[in-house]
Amino acid sequence: MEVFLLQNVENVGVKGHIVKVSDGYALNFLIPKKLAIQVTEGNKATLASRLKVEEIKSDVLKSKIALLAEDIKSLHVTLKKKIHDDGKLYGAVSAEDIVDVLKAKNVQVNKKQVEFEKSIKSIGEHKVTIRLSTKLKPQLTVKIVAE
Fold first, then answer.
1. Burial 108-117 (b: 16+ CB within 10 A, else e)
2. Which residues of 82-92 are buried (b: 16+ CB within 10 A; e: fewer)?
3. CA–CA separation, 4 vs 19, rounded Å?
4. How would you write the pLDDT of the chain (147 residues) with one tens digit per residue?
5. SS3 139
6. Which residues are CB-neighbours of 30 under 8 A, at least 6 positions away?
7. Which H or E run includes 49?
8. How many C-alpha atoms does 85 have within 13 Å on its Cβ side?
9. Domain architecture of the chain: domains with CATH
10. Closest Cα partner for 128 from 95, 100, 96, 103?
11. Which among 2, 13, 133, 142 has most CB atoms closer than 10 A?
12. What is the Cα Rg of the chain in Å?
């Protein structure tokens, strides 16, 4: 039986694709749990339009993420931190510090998206990676100065 997946189903397929599964699996699991709908001659046009809408949404989201990546690449931010006499910071720069600085620049990211190559514990310029997607990982230049 051919079904149109309404959600991602592990070991079956991803949302928006038409897949072939056994009749029992479709009738007893996928369709009752609203994970899929059966493909018939009557609803093929509806499913095709749904698929187009999903593709358009995906393209729009990808373009927004790409624009955000370009904005992040061009940013140079400065953080003021307390330092010891030898030029080391009292504490390492955290992901929350980076998120707060970006929020001030009107860039919304989650602290889970902030990745450090190594912890930042000294003054100077450092690169910080912001993981927007599996492929888009723009780097941000952060300058640490004494408070």
1. ebeeebbebe
2. ebeeeeebeee
3. 7
4. 999 898 999 999 988 888 999 999 999 999 999 999 999 888 888 888 888 888 898 889 888 888 888 988 888 899 999 988 887 888 899 999 999 999 998 888 998 999 998 889 988 999 999 998 888 899 999 999 988
5. strand
6. 3, 5, 9, 12, 21, 36
7. helix 44-74
8. 0
9. 2-66 (3.40.5.10), 67-146 (3.10.430.100)
10. 95
11. 142
12. 23
Across 39-63, b (16+ Cβ under 10 Å) vs e yields beeeeeeebeeeeeeeeeeeeeeee
Q: CA 76, CA 78: separation in Å to the nearest integer?
A: 7
Instruction: Give the residue from 143, 111, 112 showing the smallest Cα distance to 127.
Output: 143
DSSP summary character for residue 4: E
| 0.85 exceeded by pTM | no
Residues, the chain, total? 147
* Contact between residue 15 and residue 5 where contact means Cβ atoms under 8 Å apart: yes
- Which residue from 65, 59, 100 is spatially nearest to 79, judged by alpha carbons? 100
Report d(CA 38, CA 36) in Å as an integer: 7
